[in-house]
Amino acid sequence: MPEAGQVLVLAGRFDPTCDLVVEELNRRAVPVFRADMAEFPLKLTLAASLSGNRWNGTLTGGRRALDLASVRSVYYRRPTRPEFPEGMSPEARKVAETEARRGFGGLLSALPCPWLPPPGKAADAEYKPLQLRVAAESGLSVPRTLITNDPEAARGFADLIGGPLVYKPFFHVRGTLHGRPVAVYANVLGPDDLPHPDIATTAHLFQEWVPKAHEVRMTVVGREIFAAEIHADSDAGHIDWRSDYAGHTYKVCEPPSDVAAGALRMLDSLGLPYGAFDFVVTPAGEWRFLEVNPSGQYGFVQQATGLPITAAICDYLEGTGQ
């Protein structure tokens, strides 16, 4: 039987992926309290006290109220930072934000209920070096990788590989340049591109280029696995499919048993109930691990394939999932 109580949804104001989950929970008549960390403290009021071994109290905003003791689960989807009065000094704002994170965020993390995903575990899993090590430990095939700020080491790695390299940022790099949105995606480098003096400016990640038949986005919710092939029809999309969503076709697929088992072991090691995995599948059919996103989007895959990922997430939050 599912547990009674509300699902607390922590997400930004505009999040289409989160909207899918909220809509499905509403359809199931599961009570939902949606909030963003940015609403605290200007639009959300918190009052909680420790009674025995449980925190009791309320989180209120306008006409909404959440009984903290009633929270059955938390869906954590990239909430934004707390916002404070415009006239607050930078020094006071820094202190207030730290206190909000430690107090408001800390209280929510102390609620004795499942989180999808747990924010601390998700933050740890964002580190690519940790991901790659745990993936290899879990039995997944990981491309040869170098992390360096030494231009000569990068050139030596290229010589060792004997073929093209891929440079990719450790985290999403997005912003604006001359008023236009820009993003940094994976780039293929040849021997003439290395060494490059800019490598010395910070840490860089290089991997061997893995020949692609196609890529796979594999979304894991609890113990359920949903995999879809991604076939890129453009040159840019063939290097990094995120750079050209419009040029893709999708096809539901079944991951090899060893890959599925490795992905589950990896999530267990990272302490995560959810992961959006990216794999390259070579022309010979080998699955090579690229990364896992502990709070990755999935709506575009569900829309293209009909895979019931939202339902699996809601099952987990409702307490009926695997």
Secondary-structure topology with pairs:
Blueprint: E1 6-11, H1 16-27, E2 32-35, E3 45-51, E4 54-61, E5 64-67, E6 71-77, H2 90-109, E7 115-116, H3 119-125, H4 128-137, E8 145-148, H5 151-161, E9 165-168, E10 173-177, E11 180-184, E12 187-189, E13 204-208, E14 214-221, E15 224-232, H6 235-239, E16 248-253, H7 257-270, E17 274-281, E18 287-293, H8 299-305, H9 309-318
Parallel strand pairs: 1-2, 1-6, 6-7
Antiparallel strand pairs: 3-4, 4-5, 8-13, 9-12, 9-13, 10-11, 14-15, 14-17, 15-16, 17-18
Helix pairs in contact: 1-9, 4-7
Question: Could you describe the 3D structure shown?
Answer:
With 322 residues, the protein is α+β, with helices and mostly antiparallel strands. The protein has 3 domains: 6-113, no CATH class; 123-141 and 211-318, ATP-grasp fold, B domain (D-amino Acid Aminotransferase, Chain A, domain 1), CATH 3.30.470; 145-208, no CATH class. It is 30% helix and 32% strand. The protein has 9 helices and 18 strands. It has helices at residues 16-27, 90-109, 119-125, 128-137, 151-161, 235-239, 257-270, 299-305, 309-318; strands at residues 6-11, 32-35, 45-51, 54-61, 64-67, 71-77, 115-116, 145-148, 165-168, 173-177, 180-184, 187-189, 204-208, 214-221, 224-232, 248-253, 274-281, 287-293. A 5-stranded antiparallel sheet has the order 16-15-14-17-18, with helices on both faces. A 4-stranded parallel sheet has the order 2-1-6-7, covered by helices on one side. β17 (274-281) and β18 (287-293) form a beta hairpin. α1 (16-27) packs across α9 and α4 crosses α7 (257-270). It is globular. The two termini are 13 Å apart.
